[in-house]
Amino acid sequence: MQPNQLRPFFGFSVAIVAVVLFLGSCGKARQTSNFNPDKFDSLVFASRSVPHTVDSLLQAGAIGRIGADFYRVNYWSDYNDTLAMAIADTALNRKIENDDDRYFHYMIAGMSYQLDYISGHYERGLRRTRQFLDSVDPDFVASHSKLRSNHLMLNSILGYYNIYLYRFDEAEAQFKKTTDLIAKYEADAQGDSLDLALYAYMRIRLATSAMIAYANMKQDQLAMKWLEVGETYLNDYVQKNGETSAAQSTSYKLLMMKALFLNRMGRADEAALAYQQAIKNPYYKSQIGRLNSVDYLLESHHYEEALKNIDNIEDILRYQKKEWNIDNIAGFVSLRFKAYLGAGRRDSALAIATRIIYALDSARVWEKRDKAAELATVYDTKDKEAQIAEKETSLLQTRITALLVALALFSVFFIVYSVLRRRAAKLKAAQDRIEGELQIARDIQMSMVPHEFPHREGLDMYASMTPAKEVGGDLYGYVVRGNMLYFAVGDVSGKGVPASLFMAQATRLFRTMANQGLMPAEICKHMNAELGGEDNVNGMFVTMWIGMLNMDNGHLYFCNAGHNPPVIGGGANHGDFLQMESNAPIGLWPDLEYVGEEIDTIKNRPLFVYTDGLNEAEDPQQVQFSDDRLLEILRNTHFDTAQQVIEALAAQVAEHRNGAEANDDLTMLCLRVS
């Protein structure tokens, strides 16, 4: 199911896969060798830092490179699909030397081809999955519970690929082959209750995912057929295993889909009855449960009820740490627009349309950042030229899709605006709209800086940014590459909207350059060339302090581009301003060379980086906070955590201002490595 298509099964495929993997990990692995595929799972997945644990196991020789790749792909698939796919592609080209490698190679293939499906690469996924399944040894697959689950999943996905490529007969034949394979595994299970429960869930997943794929291709009759098959499988599961919470949520989602299909077929009364049955299910009370009802409510013109169930959609996306990408904008946020428009609440519809259009800028930033990270990984693979060409083609397709979505949203915006422009004549309405847009811009700007920080043993890092106006020009960010942590703090000249736009461009450039593994001075040089060209007609610039920290030994490379000197702890004075080379700010002169510096180690020495909104904060009498006071507070503040240091300073600044309005943006970043 694709993110910009049917909503009622939002999260369903992930939930079913989680149950399948859980049951598969608990089941008995009838092994034909001494290899135990579960021996490292609990150790790796229970660790605070999966990449660090995997690196340690690899260095100790406990696992091979393909095994390490498996855990890395598994980890990154939760955060960055494109990076996970690039790692998987590299792993699948490695030489298989033993049974461990053979097992992990098969599991990586399953994850890789599933990522093809999730990201909509249907033709490539069909070709790769079919070739892989034709080459596997069925006896080896049958020897491990997780391999059997993976094998069934790949066979199912082959059917879904055929649906999305309009090959419905081939899809039905593949589903028949998959159900026959499930029956064979059930016969081999010899009454093992965990294995039997696993295969029952695989049947349910096959039916419901086929239903969703057919529905997305507007094949409602075939979708309804598989919905009924899914109901049969679910009833059989409940009779044998009881009314589990997973069965309860699946029952709810099937009823909601039935309501949607019946309504599309003109059977509104039956659809309403199915809907009433669904909302009696306890799952309806959950946030995702209410979200699953929205498609039916919109199609049946129950707009007010749809609004009630989707009103907190952006809170859900924020809680789940969803990025502002094209899929989330077109698939989720636009549902609120449709509900407001259908309910006749055109002012709210206009506000949502405006929010969507502004969010496209942030979405493009995320798209470019992710593609840059993916290309950087692909440069390390064996066939890098061919893969880079493929990724660049994918990037072009993404840009075309984004452009089409943007044009459609702009069209909707102007249609709604034409209806409401007479109301915009009054000064109060115009003022309210401007304030709303500035708030949107503030939200988008705040979404561009990270609010979660690296979870790595020995590293404590925290940062905060407080704009003085609705939007500002300060920035901070970080990028993790292996054991290297890139981090930066910057301050754009000026304030307001122009500064925020320049800030967005500087943030994007820093992430792109850091993902390429450049040294801090090189990053400053390339950013200066980009930002200081002829297009910078307003002469804007940004001061930045960029660091590159080896999180293992504490070695720090850095470059200061006209920024305030950071404070580094330790020493005889328990903290001093860092003595640095003088470099010009970024953006003034495009041909500058920047001087980088380094410190052998900063282990157990807190580093505090900030913008001048801290030391130049003014009280009502315009007395500044001052460098001396900053240094005195840091020298006398016991370091418990990085967050505690920043919150203590924020409280001191607020006390100093004594109610005076902030005269500049305030950004602080603190870290310590031990």
TrEMBL record:
<dbReference type="GO" id="GO:0016791">
    <property type="term" value="F:phosphatase activity"/>
</dbReference>
<dbReference type="Pfam" id="PF07228">
    <property type="entry name" value="SpoIIE"/>
</dbReference>
<protein>
    <submittedName>
        <fullName>Stage II sporulation protein E (SpoIIE)</fullName>
    </submittedName>
</protein>
<keyword id="KW-1133">Transmembrane helix</keyword>
<feature type="domain" description="PPM-type phosphatase">
    <location>
        <begin position="456"/>
        <end position="673"/>
    </location>
</feature>
<dbReference type="InterPro" id="IPR036457">
    <property type="entry name" value="PPM-type-like_dom_sf"/>
</dbReference>
<keyword id="KW-0378">Hydrolase</keyword>
<keyword id="KW-0812">Transmembrane</keyword>
<keyword id="KW-0472">Membrane</keyword>
<feature type="transmembrane region" description="Helical">
    <location>
        <begin position="400"/>
        <end position="420"/>
    </location>
</feature>
<dbReference type="InterPro" id="IPR052016">
    <property type="entry name" value="Bact_Sigma-Reg"/>
</dbReference>
<dbReference type="InterPro" id="IPR001932">
    <property type="entry name" value="PPM-type_phosphatase-like_dom"/>
</dbReference>
